[in-house]
Amino acid sequence: MRRTFLLAGVFMAGSLAAQAPALPDTAARRMAMDSLGFLVGDWGGEAWVLTPSGRQRIWQTETVRRKLGGQVLLIEGLGRLLTEDGPADTVFQALAVVQWTPEDGYRMRSTTREGRSGEFDLELTSDGFVWGIAVPSGRVQYTMTRTPDGEWLERGVFVRDGAPPVPMIEMRLRRTNP
After folding, report:
1. How far is Cα 155 from Cα 57, in angstroms, rounded to an integer?
2. For residue 85, what is the domain's CATH number?
3. Are the beta carbons of 62 and 152 closer than 8 angstroms?
């Protein structure tokens, strides 16, 4: 009986919360996330990544969805080795949540299938965004650009103090489903 009352209490609290007016910054969060709305949909295309054994060609897909009433974007990336017969083994898989808050601005939290995860600042540009990862010997900087043809062009470079940037990854994706 105690469990029944506890479940009823949880249900009622959830119902009341669902009926409560939105917090004042909910509209601001949605409006901020609209700046990245061009990403929503399904994307696919060729990419290359620099590995210890050289460049590896991959077929990259990105699936982007609005969640929580447009307050966050959920992004799933999948890279498959590109062979003469087409896409083969999965070599990359990640899931990211992008959101905006008045306190922190745009932030991305991502996790890879290998269990690597992190939270990163995302800086909007006039035609996309920039984000990066600090690594022990430098930084990997990613720049996403929406091309005039509507493609998703993303490049990653390794940056070390006093050295020119080293290209590490490039993907050029086309929308496959809005």
Report:
1. 14
2. 2.40.128.20
3. yes
Residue 56 inside a domain? The answer is yes
The pair of three-digit structure tokens given for residue 96, joined into one six-digit string = 């990211």
| CA atoms of 144 and 165, how far apart (whole Å) | 16
The pTM score is 0.83
Q: Does the residue 2 lie in any domain?
A: no
CB count in 10 Å sphere of residue 118:
12
Please list the pLDDT of the chain residue by residue as tens digits (178 residues): 555 444 444 444 455 455 555 555 888 999 999 999 999 999 999 999 998 889 999 999 999 999 999 999 999 999 999 888 887 899 999 999 999 999 999 999 999 999 999 999 999 999 999 999 998 899 999 999 999 999 999 999 999 988 999 999 999 999 998 7
Residue 8 covered by a domain: no
Count the domains in the chain: 1
Give CA torsion, residues 100, 102, 104, 109, to 10 deg.
-20
Cα 54 → chain centroid? 26
In a domain, 7, yes or no: no
